[in-house]
Amino acid sequence: MTTASASTDTATPAPARPGRHPHPRRALLLLPAALFLAVALAGPWLAPHPIDAPVTATYAEAGDGALLGGDQLGRDVWSRLLDGGTALIGCAFLIGAAVTATAALLGCLAALRPRAGRVLERAADVAILLPSVLGIMLVALAWPDGGRWAVIGAAIVLGIPFAVRVIAAAAAPLAAAGYVEAALMRGESSLSITVRELLPNLRGTVAALFGLRFVEAVYIISTAAFLQIGPQPPEADWALMIRENAPGILLNPWAVLAPSAAVALLAITVNLATSAPAPRTQAVTSA
Amino acid sequence: MAALTPGAPAAGSTDPAAAGPPVPPRPRDDFARRAGRAALRAGAVLLRRILVLAALLAVVFAAVEMLPGDAATATAERGDSAAAIAARREHLGLDRPLWERFTDWMTALPTGDLGTSARGEKVADLLRDPFPNTLALAGAAFALTVAASLALGCLAAARPGRRTDRMIGHTATTAFAVPDFVLATGLVLVLSLWTGLLPAVTVADASGKPAEWTMMIMPVLALAVPQTGWNTRIVRGALADQADAAHVEAARLDGLSTTRVLLRHALPGALPVIATGIATSTGMLLGGAVVVETLFNHPGIGTVLAGAVAGRDTTLIAGCVALAGAAITLVLLAADLVRAKTVGAGR
Amino acid sequence: MYVNRRQVLMTAGGLGAATLVGCSSQSGGAPAPQTTGGTPKKGGTLRVGALGRAGAITRDPHGTQSNESDYLVLSLVFDTLTVPAGRPNTAPRLAASWESTPDLKTWRFKIAPGAAFHDGSPVTAADVVWSLRRLRGTKSGASRLPGIQAENITADGDGTVVLVSDYPNAELPLLTRLSSFILKKDTPDNALDKAPGTGPFKLDWYRNGNARLVRNEKWYGGEVLLDAVEITMFETAQAMSNAILAGQIDLASNVGPVAARIAETRKDLRVVRRADDMAMPIVMRTKDGPFADPRVREALRLVVDRDAMVKQVLSGYGTVANDVMGTGDPRYARDLPQRKRDLARAGQLLAEANFDLGKTYDLITTEDIAGLAESATLFANHAREAGIRINVVKQESGTFWDATWLKGTLYTTYWGTNDSVLFLGSKLMVGDAGQNEAQFADPAFDDAYRRAVGAADEAGRAAALVEVQKIQHERSGYLLWGMADGIDVAAAKVQNLPTLAGYGRVQLQSTWLR
User: Fold this and answer.
1) In whole angstroms, what is the distance from residue B58 CA to residue A286 CA?
2) Chain A nearest CA to C76, separation (Å)
């Protein structure tokens, strides 16, 4: 889920097909994500117990004041679950936004200036050969005290080349359009053309790209946390919880299943929301 | 919009025509000239891929160099003196300039020599058994991904907008949103610890390979399911793009059956996009294998890499990255070929 | 990192290069092997899981074995002169007996009659001398055979080996327990992987950390019952736990408390608890800094809630300790008063010592072994209740051993050799000890130690040993809150498993399958 290749279906919605109306189904698809994010972000205030103090036996079964039982140190799984989403979502949002914004600018630049475009292409060619898991290990090791920031940095650096390609491809036809060429002839700066002429027309692509990068960031952050890069115990973090509690999965399955479900639901709901436009499906139906 | 996909060749990647529908070849073209041009193009593509791989290795080598500590301190024992560490540093050649060590390493690569690990063993020996195991795991997952995503994508595209299409769409989204380690954890719990249907971990035999093929099922599933979700969407999307193309439209108007239109007219045009998309999955499969292997105790490079990173073993890490990069390069080349065959035929 | 860094990285294996050096002479206090169900029976293959990392594989019997799986293979194929035992803590193996001169400097080991290599050739003193000198010549040789120079290892005829120590050492036979594997004389370095040993099992095949061993029909040490032992290396305890739960292995070696709790709910599995396996003390720097005042160290020892530590950090699989290292020693001082939590007294001591309660103190830890970081976190909670502010800092393993170990003012450490008070004293607490973690320099302690290890008469030694422990209990730099059990999980059919702590667990020669 690392790459921009899904752009085929998700990142192309925007250059809006004429005659499409806002769909009630679309709102329906946005709802789960909104609900889930609201609960996850409010979680820390809803947690009944402190996240770092034992309240029950290690891997205690559900019940007895601990709704989802205890974790590997006897801490309340439910409280940690409520607490563990904020940072993950925040970081994923940051990564998604940073990658999308940088890629939007660079992608347009690549479309406007073919030479810059080729340099960015090469960068992407290199990046594609480095599996993101390996990349993140390297960056986090080079910056051992970086914690979450190391992961965020790595995810941004590794994500940009792919995202730039998406924007560059979407911007290419626009860059060839008469009004943009005219602006170039007038000697306007690339930045001003990008902001004034290109980006407004790429709104849909950029929005879809953001959704995709968000889901991708969730994957990267949680995989890194699973590899114990980034958040450190005793922090409550969904991926870290899965890793820490996995040995006790038979004693208290909720300690693992609940955070697993949370990570999955986060990715699924946001993904549904961003794929909501689903343009091509209708296109084929109409035939 | 093939142009959106990463891994597209330099010339084609920002050229929307690259993935356009195949046009029947012009019959009077000189065959020899065409073959020569094709070989030249293939050579150029190959060279470019190799250069890119070399660039990656340089980046990785430099990155590992930036890590705090080095192999000499990382392999130190409790109580080693500073002098002992310095001696080991010299022995490992860590006192030589970075550039020199990198050049040595790169020039030895073509001979199959991946250098010497921090513990003084040949990296090629260390990876000889594990790497094929990782390739087998990732390869099986790759094959499953290709088959399943083509089948599901076509199935969805055959009945656009209907329930099957929607269901496949949502399932695919769900599948690719679930991280592989989450899936793996769930699979072990359900298929092994609760029901006892499958072995929970991989045990290797005297040949260094998994003792039973059933040990491969869960790791392969854990890797393939998310990637299948991803690629099903690509297949579905690429076929949808093709549905608008003139020749597909024409075939449909001719009254050909949906299946026939889909497989004979839409799919060939969609192949370049699909090939590039699936090729991109290779990196995800290899990266995911690192995580999944530790969960299943699969005897692959994942476990080697784990120790190598902890041990700051530059050459061992670079060896792993080089092999992974080479594997991905091969798949990308194959994708290049598919594209050249479908697109190049029309030039 | 790996990840677990852990676990990639990680955390997982937990046994860093550091551990084994620490373990290089361990065994346990637990006595006889586990009681058997019925008469021993010959036959069957035992499938064992042991922790290990692909990148750390060693085939050299005298190399640094950081993989438990490799150590298991080596110790079944090769023999050491002596082996860990219960009471006394050293038992004969390739050396059938030993004796010393009254000055405790010259030690003579007699080779067991009938001992032979797997290729049939008999073991001679020349083989032993060559092997011990080779061991002494490795880079950690000086710490594995301390006080014994290579030229002071000599043969006396074919059947006797003489070791001369630089100083009196009553504990010398203990030093030959764990790494003194005996190879044939002049085994070249490139033939180590197939070198014949003298042990209860012969190597059938070895590949990437996994191995199959078959019975040595002619072992001099007695009848071996198992047909074969198959060893699978596991990167993580969790994967090993899954393997034993799914019935893919018969014995999960050192698999940890969580697996034990699951196994306890199942009839087809059995838990083997080996007491005094691992010490995870907190080190307080005694030389200078905030903990130089012995009253402050005493206060910290009074602050910790030992029962809670054992219950939560060790899931109850362990015992409360009394700040004396070497709890598995047959002569461990059990009559010293058990220190208990006493916040009032702690507060009083801190006030007397003018300890600055306004400051926050860093407690540095690492995640090398399970529970270590958790113990730091929990201790910080306990200290907070006494008004001491402790901030837990987790360091990556390499950084920890490089920058904190031996230098820090407050940090966690761990030791796997716990059946000898004197061994640990010599390594960690004597003023000039190479691994003096707390920079502890106490003339009275050094004096008691010298008497304990060098006194000619047994009674004098015993009295000095009590004094060594008393001083430790009172004022050393260690806060030893408890001892973790070693925990193996086995299939119900596996009988007569070793119950010794530490590496005593590798002695599978008399194990059998029902």
Assistant:
1) 51
2) 29
